[in-house]
Amino acid sequence: MSSARPPGLPHVDAMTPAVLVLAGPVTRDEVRGLCEDVRALLEGGGASVVVCDIGGLGPPGLAVVDLLARLQLAARRAGGHIRLRDPDPALPALLDLVGLRFEVEGQPEQREPPLGVQEEMESGDPAV
Length: 128
Fold this sequence. Notes:
Blueprint: E1 18-23, H1 28-45, E2 49-56, H2 62-77, E3 81-85, H3 91-97, E4 103-104
Parallel strand pairs: 1-2, 2-3, 3-4
């Protein structure tokens, strides 16, 4: 006996971000559908972030940058943002080169120093 899967996207707990897995080279025609998926996950699930698992996209290039920029734009229009999971090591440098910043899972946010890190002070520096 089998049961039919309910229509639409699965229920998403607001404390657990939704995950969108991107695999293989994504064609231009698939980008619109992925943007719709991001919007639906944010609007329907009540979450403010969608985690994009991009480990399967392969080596980064301008097509990947374009895809991520469009997904981020779709997420922002829906009131959220995307977080990257498992990016290629060269991708952050490429994104920085084109002026895009993305939150990467497992890394501290840009505006917060990592825990346990303290700034050093030169002995001749005046106290602030």
